[in-house]
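Comment thread on ticket #2218

A.B. wrote:
> Attaching the input chain for the structure job we discussed in standup.
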Amino acid sequence: MGLILRTEKLQSAWTSIDGLRMHARVSQGPGSPAMVLVHGLVVSSRYMVPTAERLSPHHPVYVPDLPGFGKSDKPPVP
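C.D. wrote:
> Ran it. Output below, let me know if you need it in another format.
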């Protein structure tokens, strides 16, 4: 991923996909498998932070903000 900013147990990671800045919360925890937590409609990755923090000591965790949600850019068309 691109730029990574440290927070408490999770890091904020940025990458560009098709010209849109995409945000994800990431933990490079030990072990496997990696866990990907995907939020539902009307919320962002922030909703998944408590679960991600509990998983992070045991697994790598990835919690993306889907396009148009949270800190990710909104696409020009749905």
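A.B. wrote:
> Thanks. Noting for the ticket: Strands lie at 4-6, 11-17, 20-28, 35-36, 60-64.
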